[in-house]
Every structure is written in structure tokens, then in C-alpha cells.
TrEMBL record, chain A:
Belongs to the beta sliding clamp family. Residues 248-370 form the DNA polymerase III beta sliding clamp C-terminal domain. The gene is dnaN. It comes from Actinoallomurus spadix. This is Beta sliding clamp. Its main location: cytoplasm. PANTHER family: BETA SLIDING CLAMP, DNA POLYMERASE III SUBUNIT BETA. The keyword Lyase does not apply. InterPro entries: DNA_clamp_sf (IPR046938), DNA_polIII_beta (IPR001001), DNA_polIII_beta_C (IPR022635), DNA_polIII_beta_cen (IPR022637), DNA_polIII_beta_N (IPR022634). Forms a ring-shaped head-to-tail homodimer around DNA. CDD domains: beta_clamp.
TrEMBL record, chain B:
Keywords: Cytoplasm, DNA-binding, Endonuclease, Hydrolase, Nuclease. GO terms for molecular function: endonuclease activity. Belongs to the NucS endonuclease family. The gene is nucS. HAMAP family: NucS. The keyword DNA-binding applies. This is Endonuclease NucS. Its main location: cytoplasm. InterPro entries: Endonuclease_NucS, NucS_C, NucS_N, NucS_N_sf, tRNA_endonuc-like_dom_sf.
Amino acid sequence: MKFRIERDVLADAVAWTARSLPVRPPVPVLAGMLIEAGDQLKLSSFDYEVSAQMTMDIDADEPGTALVSGRLLAEICRSLPAAPVEITTDGAKVTLKCGSAKFTLLTMPVEDYPSLPDMPPAAGTIGSDAFAAAVSQVAIAAGRDDTLPMLTGVRVEIEGETVTLASTDRYRLAVRTLRWKPERPDISAVALVPAKTLSDTAKSLTSGAEVSIALATGGTGEGMIGFEGGGRRTTTRLLDAEFVKYQSLWPKETSAVAEIQTGPFAEAVKRVGLVAEKNTPVRLSFRQDEVVLEAGSGDDAQAVEVLGASLDGQDIDIAFNPNFLLDGLSAIGSDVARLAMTTSTKPAVITGKPADEGDPDYRYLIMPIRLSS
Amino acid sequence: MRLVIARCSVDYAGKLTAHLPMAPRLILMKADGSVSIHADDRAYKPLNWMNPPCTLKEEEGRWTVTHGKSGEQLILTIEEILHDSSHELGIDPGLRKDGVEAHLQELLAEHITTLGEGWKLIRREYPTAIGPVDILCRDDKSGTVAVEIKRRGEIDGVEQLTRYLELLNRDPLLAPVRGIFAAQEIKPQARVLAADRGIDCVTLDYDALRGIERDGTLF
């Protein structure tokens, strides 16, 4: 194997592929990154859950394959000088030359490396930036504790031209709908994708204009979802769990709808929240033209701030975990936040104020904290 | 078990020397022949002690504890005895299995469908030649599953389950038996080892199993 490649191109490709290297490889070869050079250069990593493969055009002087330590290769590529890189195999070793630097890396047996799962059939395509934004809006509400695997996933529902993403950690629920271009107009599918993998993947695929989503669910064998865009292709195993029937969680009626400038509101929550001890809420009192934010009580430090707000409906006092509230406010992506509330003990819906009246494409449902007094 | 509370000073003569000045202390003389001198602090840890076998020679105002093999001596100079009583404790049943762990086993056996719809319990504490398996059950496809329950899931728990699985899989009536490692918290190393051996990991929610409902959640 012998080929030359631009340093930045290689560094980007190696860094992206290295993201899927397992932290604790049960088999030593999985710590490796597979380099396949031919008409194209292919870099692969796999940890049995997630696979990543980067493909780019090169002109190899001699085709070949090699398996080298992925971590080490990623660290080396990160700190190479700005010069073209030449990679050659030399017996059981790989030599990497860049400017005046030269590295010799040990290789592992290529034949021991597992074959990467095949990409499932393509289901459709979506704008990469829109997809990354939507995933980040939803993934914030996913749980991190794996007691209930369902809570660590993002549910992806595909119905024709509409994709719905949803996740919840029991304290809040985030749901986003967006349009995409399905392969077949009558497509209908659901999948539960690990939230962390999905958000990392969506963020890393913004280099191409579009992301192609491939889905294999149902039938025998484990479900799998694949994403492809800009020469990068990654697959991940789906979570095998039933997602909560979240449609019934939305409040049937609301007694008060408040509208507040998102920026100043988020800043005030952050400020007032400084005195909120762990697990204590920020209390909001909505009146006709204002909202009073308070935190802390009794002998502890206290904070209070008053903001202008418009309220349609009855006056209401309600309290939230400040972090969960901030997550919602940062995700709505709108200058004006709209809070639809029922009572101080029933969940509230946070949305951005839509330009025209219609269903907002992003909704964040948050459970209030019961006030003890 | 003989308990003595006395004002005493203690001198230790052996590999090294130590001296405890005159003060009120608790002296424990256990049935195994050990003697230990305790102050009113440091939990279980004595100020000084002599392991069995040892002999106690009681003289007026001076007790001498001599170690049977090494001849090391603990000399107690007694000024005043404040309390002296003996109690027959009998044979101790030993340290019982962690309360939470036993309870988790009981609860999971009772709610075996936590592991999956249609699962059935075969029995708790299923006996094998190398000790009982916490839970043996059948999954929805009638496959045998051995479950090892821990409070904290670490490497040695996976090893334990591996040994059970190896033995259980020799039984033609049960084989093939797969394993589930269930714990309230599973260490990443244990997770990797379990996955490598084809053992599934399940994190248990003690509160949910006990039926303690969370307050202030959406569902």
C-alpha cells in the first residue's frame, strides 16, 4: 500500500472515523482503524454497536489494506505539520511521512477485523443542517441513566414526508416534526436510536448538504439505522425497547398562555437559578403584564427578578427545575417563548411563538415541581 | 464473651513496644481466646490486641496476656474494675447476604416480566454444584435464562455468572442457557466483559420494583 493525501483531508477523515472507536475494546483488533487504499481511500471503525466508514477519492500508487491503532493514528494526524502525507506499508509496519516527521506504526492482522454491517436500504434524504438542528432540539430531553433503556433513545417516526423525533427522561418530553424526502411516498417506519450516538452523528454529518437515512427494522435480526452524507457513512444498532405512548401526555386544555422574550427570560432564569440548591425549583408567578421569578427560601440565599410578559388567561404560580426550563428555552429557537399552562401541578408546554397560527414544529413538555407551601 | 471496663494501663512487649497510659477502657475477651483493648472511639478498631491463641494470667492489679507461639506479652496494670460480665453468644450465623441484594432477588422473581413480556420464573436460588443461581427463568421463547443479581455490578459478578452458565449448559434439560447480569449499577468494565461473553446486562430500578412511585414525572 502506498498513497499520498493532503494533511487536512486525512486529519478530518481520521478524526471523524476515530469517534466510533470503542473505549474498552473487548477484542484488540477493534481498537484498530482499517485503512483500505485503492481507487478510493476507506477508513473504518467498528465497536459492534456503531460502525463508521469514511470514503474519499485518492490515487493510490499501490493499493492495499492495513489495520493500525486508531487512537494513535488520530493523535498523530491531529498534530502533523502542514504538508502532504505519504502512507506506505513496509512489511508488518505502516510508515507515515509528513514533512520532516516520520512515524512507524505496528499493524494488526486485517483478516481478524470483523466485516462492517451492510448499509440497510435507503429510506430517504434530509438536509444535513436541518437534521442536526432537529436532533439537538430533541436529544436534550433524553435520559442518561440506562435503568430504562427507552429513555436513552430518540424515537424516530417516519410517516410519508414527515419525520417526527421524540425523546423524554420522564421529567420532560421534546418532540420535533420536520419534512424530508422519502424514497417511497407511502413509507411508514419507527425506530429507537441511542440519543448520544444520534446527536453525535447528526452533528458530524453537516459537511455534506444532505444526509441519507437508511433503516432496517422488523423481520428477524436486530434493527439498524444508517446515515450517509459527504462520504461519511455510519450505522448504529437500534434500541430494542417500547417507547412511551407520548401523544396522551400533551395537556388537553390550557388555562393560561404566557409569552416572554426568550433571551431575557433565559438569562433571568439562569441568574435566579444561582441560588436554587440542587433539586429545588425556580418559582414563576405569572400576572397580567409580568412574571416574577424567585428561587431560594427560608434561611437560604434568595433571588427575585421581575420581567415583562403577556398573559392570556388566569394568573398562575408554577415552579420548574431551572436546568430543564433552560434546556427548553434554548431549544425552541425562537425570540419569543410561549408557555401554555394548566395548573401548578400539570405539565406545561413550551414552544416558540409561531409566525403564523398553526401547529409549531417543536414542542417541549415540562413537568413542574410541586410547591410544598 | 467477657466484657471488662477498667481503669488500666497497657504495655505491649514483643516485636515492638507500646504503652497506653492509665485511663478507663473496655477490655474484650472473646471465646476464640483473643483479647482486645478498646477506647470509646474508632468504631471496631482496638487500641491494642492479641490474636489467639493466647493465655490470660490474672493477678491482683496485673493481668498478663501471653501469645501461645511467639511469647509476646500484653501487660495490663489494673487500677480499678468498673464492670465485669460474661455472656454466652453461641455460634454466629455469619454475615448475611446484603439486604438490598436479597430483596432485589425477591422482587425480580416476583416481577419477572421486568426482564421481558411473557417471561416465567423457574425458581429462585436454583441449586448447582457450585452454589445457587439467583434466578433461573424462561424467556418468551422458552429459552432458559440464568440471572445473577448484584447491587453493584462488577467484574467478579460476571465471572460468577460465567461459572454458573458453564455448569448449567452441561445439563441437557436446560441447555442452552443464556445469562443476564442484573444490578442497580453496572460498571463499564463489567459491561464489556459481559457483552464479550454474550451475557446481557440489565439495570434494575429498585424503587420501581418496590412500587415506589416517583413524584413529579410525566408518566
